Amino acid sequence: xxxxxxxxxxxxxxxxxxxxxxxxxxxxxxxxxxxxxxxxxxxxxxxxxxxxxxxxxxxxxxxxxxxxxxxxxxxxxxxxxxxxxxxxxxxxxxxxxxxxxxxxxxxxxxxxxxxxxxxxxxxxxxxxxxxxxxxxxxxxxxxxxxxxxxxxxxxxxxxxxxxxxxxxxxxxxxxxxxxxxxxxxxxxxxxxxxxxx
Length: 197
Ligand code: GRF
Fold this sequence. Notes:
Number of helices: 7
CATH superfamily: Formyl transferase, N-terminal domain
Mean pLDDT: 97
CATH architecture: 3-Layer(aba) Sandwich
Bound molecules: 5-O-phosphono-beta-D-ribofuranosylamine
Distance between the termini: 13 Å
CATH topology: Rossmann fold
Shape: globular
Helix content: 25-40%
Largest sheet: 7 strands, mixed
Order of helices and strands: EHHEHEHEHEHEEH
Low-confidence stretches: none
CATH class: Alpha Beta
């Protein structure tokens, strides 16, 4: 069985969508893969409650308890590596995980570390993507699932979804429209990856 670990910092709606897809589409049988645990760098991340209610293992690793980014990332790697199975390294899925990861970390998980970003990359890397799309006068916005590399929001693109920008949109209304698509596209991209491995 291949373990999937989902890393969150907040609401965890993408994580919940992935967990639901895995259940609905029976990833255990189809791909011999399972969501094994949800890891958060914030103790009060709302998504942890959903994960626990689903009977998933949860773990909190507070980044503030570590002296450096490298020390936190090393501790995180130790937690993750405990989920490798003899013939299957774990898949690491960032879902609203608000940490910049060190090059050593991204290198260690190269090819099995995914992220979802709320813009049509390569446009609008970083934060405040929806406001920036509005300010630029974009007529379309969206989200991108990509492999994570050392350069923030720059890894190979696995999937994207596009939504229209509508008259009167605010950053929030646009974020809501994009998030609905994130929930579909992330689980689909993971399933595809599991199928092709
Ligand atoms: C999503 O928009 C994701 O693309 C971004 O942060 C948000 C997380 O939302 N990185 P949630 O925690 O999955 O609800």
